[in-house]
Amino acid sequence: MSLRDRQRADTRQRIQRQALRLFTDRGYDATTVNDVADAAGVSAMTVYRNFPTKEDLVLYDDFDQQTAATIVELPADGSLTDRIGRTVLAILDRSANDLLLARLRLMITTPALQARHLDSQFRLQEAFVGALDPTHEYAARAAASAVLGVTHTALLRWAAGSGEDNLPDLFREAFGSVFGHAL
């Protein structure tokens, strides 16, 4: 990663962290993009350059990119649900943190974010489908939807428990409950 890319990523992370702090402290609707820009020490234009909408300040993550990179790194054995499940598990192992917890809490409690969250789930499903063999597109779509449902259930339980539980373990438990075997 070049210096410029690292600086861009650092700026994006700083903006998102400040936005999440303000949304948590003041409320999503009571916080403006200008408030976020001021808190992050950047212009409103910089915020919009990194996050085209206010909702993106909460919903943005690189899960789609991680999905495509991770699924090709893992062995291609097992069912599609197992492959997708192992991919999600690998990503959850790396991402169970305070930032994710704050984002989840806002997504769960803010009506404006709930609808956009469904859009992000669809994009994630498309990332799985695009990373898998295109001759099995329909099966990949069905498997991705099923595993994302399991993931959502584990994430909700994790957020309800204030992030105290082990997120990968919750995912494994939910996966085993639905698919009848452990990963």
Question: Care to describe what's here?
Answer:
The protein has 183 residues and is mainly alpha-helical. The chain is 77% helix and 0% strand. It contains ten helices and no strands. It has helices spanning 3-26, 33-40, 44-50, 56-59, 63-73, 80-95, 98-109, 111-131, 137-160, 167-179. α1 packs across α7 (98-109).
Which key terms come to mind for this protein?
10 helices, 183 residues, mainly alpha
Share of helix, binned = over 70%
Helix and strand run: HHHHHHHHHH
For the biggest sheet, the summary is: none
Overall morphology: globular
Q: Tell me the structural class.
A: mainly alpha
Number of helices: 10
| Unreliable residue stretches | none
Radius of gyration: 17 Å
Integer average pLDDT: 92
Strand content: under 5%
Helix and strand arrangement:
Layout: H1 3-26, H2 33-40, H3 44-50, H4 56-59, H5 63-73, H6 80-95, H7 98-109, H8 111-131, H9 137-160, H10 167-179
Quick overview of this protein structure:
Helices cover 77% and strands 0% of the residues. It is mostly helical and 183 residues long.
